[in-house]
Amino acid sequence: MKKLGIVVTDPHDWTAQALMQEAERKGFKTYYPDLGQIETSIGSSVSHKAGEICLSELDAIIIRDMGPGKNDAHVFRFDVLRELEQRGILVVNPPAAIQNAANKFYASCLMAGSGIPTPRTFVSQELEKTIKIIDELDDVVIKPVFGYKGIGINRIKEGIVLAPDGSKEKTNPEDLFNKIIDEKGMLYIQEFIENSGQDIRAFVVDGKVIGAIYRKAPQGWWLNNLSQGGTPLACELTANQERMCIDAAETIGAMYAGVDIIESDKGSFILEVNATPSGAGIYKSLNINVAEHIITAIYSRLEKTGL
């Protein structure tokens, strides 16, 4: 019986539960390691344990999330996963893919290098250059390089800071820029793509798009994330969009991914790639269980390698 570790922080998370149920249905012996409990001993050999679970004895590990922790702790956890991967343990998604996707700046560089359409993007560490960039673009979003669920995203249009619902914020743009530079040391700036009030989340598993949903923003809003009030609706991708999503996941190095697309009169653009996506929205909209596809792909890979 193959041993599968499923790394979750919240056992009540929909995607975590779906992975657990599907893994057990497929016949895996399942373990639920907490990366926050990893202890490593190094002597003539290297041993990683999470509680009573010896990680090197697992055949495969699925990462639902890395868990909370300080910077050094996260670096340590990623390095443990890298070391396990080098031993031949299948880690899904690979630690490099999770890091590539989580870093919006580096992900943008990877997309551009592969010829995948993305919004025009700029990074600045200085206030004066930031103001010049934003004046030239006129309508932009400023995102945290490391962020999720639409948290911390700001839109500036014609010199005005807009709240997610489209209302004007009292914040002065320069004060906002200074605050972000003081906190983060840089600004990640992306051209705002005019759209119909919705974006697309497509799910790619093992080189195939298994389904896609629109994330429709509430009336008047410009932020579409489901966690920010967006509504999931069925979506059928064009052949070109499907190819873009598959290429984006492959460029990041992910076996499975949530790929976000924005449509405009200028064409379709990849906004982000999520290497630890939730499958709840697509299940509620299309009755597609992403966990079934992920577990099947893992099982196939283990069969091919003879593990």
TrEMBL record:
**Alphabetical list of PROSITE patterns matching this protein:** ATP_GRASP
| Domain (ATP-grasp): residue spans on this chain | 108-299
Task: Give GO terms: molecular function aspect only.
Answer: ATP binding; ligase activity, forming carbon-nitrogen bonds; metal ion binding
**One Pfam entry name:** RimK
The record's listing under SUPFAM superfamilies reads: Glutathione synthetase ATP-binding domain-like, PreATP-grasp domain
Q: Does the keyword ATP-binding apply?
A: yes
Keyword line: ATP-binding, Metal-binding, Nucleotide-binding
Question: GO CC annotation: what is one?
Answer: cytoplasm
- Where does the source fall among the domains of life? Archaea
Output this protein's name: SSU ribosomal protein S6P modification protein
From which organism does this entry originate?
A: Methanolobus vulcani
